[in-house]
Amino acid sequence: MKSSTHTLFRAGLGTLGLALSATVCSQEATGAVAPAAAQPSPGFSWVLGGTLENSASYSGGSDRSTGLRPVIGLAVGRYTLSTGGGGALLDRDLDARDASGLSTRLFQGGNLRLTGSLRIDGGRKNSEEPLLRGLPDVRRTLRVRLGLVYDVNSQFSLRSSWSQDVLGRQGGATLNNTARYEFTLAPGTELALVAGAHLANTTYLRSYFGVPGSAAGVTTALPQFAPSGGMHSTEVGLDLRHNLHHHWVLLGGVRYSQLRGDARRSPLAIKPDNYSVSIGLAYRR
């Protein structure tokens, strides 16, 4: 497990290093140094709303669930506190899918931005899903996250984020890589095309897709399965944002994802190819 964690950690640092090198080389080639980032306003802004989402009950599950989740964001200076994609609506370069919690921009130079965040990971209650009953719950934990955004141009960006369970509660580590292309359909209406590849270490995959020997044939009928770290999933999707008013925003999205590697081979992956759809409304100031 340790070697898998170290491999994923090195992969995350390698991704950050490559993007930093690309920015430095680009600046040297033009002979210009990017101006310093503008200082954030001393005031604050906020967003409040909700999103209705239909998705698989768990990653790889065949049952579906529909639920309403809050969209909340508060930006004070360089810090953002958010959940449900609220930080992304405040234009803080945060990924709506995995940058909830307390975030701050650590570095900005040229086309490169680095953010850091802390967030609560709710884990998974296996007793709530028939197939998962008898498996150990995935405990709630605290995650630290580093996110890197490289703007190729004003529309196309490359994003990478590394996340690690810092309380040692078997949450493991993940590395998410995304390409995002944004364009304006009409004044006030933006559409983004998204493609991503996601990796996870052994600890994460065994917590969410494994069947431990202590449970196999004892508390569950599932066979023992011990996945190793590597590819977790790939996805493509669309994100839509439409300004109904100066303060009101309509948002929506659709995702199609496919489990990969050992996650796909898991006996828990009844439906490894899945989709999600969401629509929401938020008010921001």
UniProtKB/TrEMBL annotation:
Protein name (database record): Outer membrane scaffolding protein for murein synthesis (MipA/OmpV family)
Question: Where is the protein localized?
Answer: Cell outer membrane
Can you name a GO cellular component term? cell outer membrane
The record ties this protein, via PANTHER family, to: MLTA-INTERACTING PROTEIN-RELATED (PTHR38776)
Q: Which Pfam families match?
A: MipA (PF06629)
- InterPro entries, alphabetized: Beta-barrel_TonB_sf (IPR036942), MipA (IPR010583)
Signal peptide from the UniProt entry? 1-26
Upper lineage is: Bacteria, Pseudomonadati, Pseudomonadota, Betaproteobacteria, Burkholderiales
What family does the entry list? Belongs to the MipA/OmpV family.
Gene3D superfamilies per UniProt: TonB-dependent receptor, beta-barrel domain
Q: Which UniProt keywords apply?
A: Cell outer membrane, Membrane, Signal
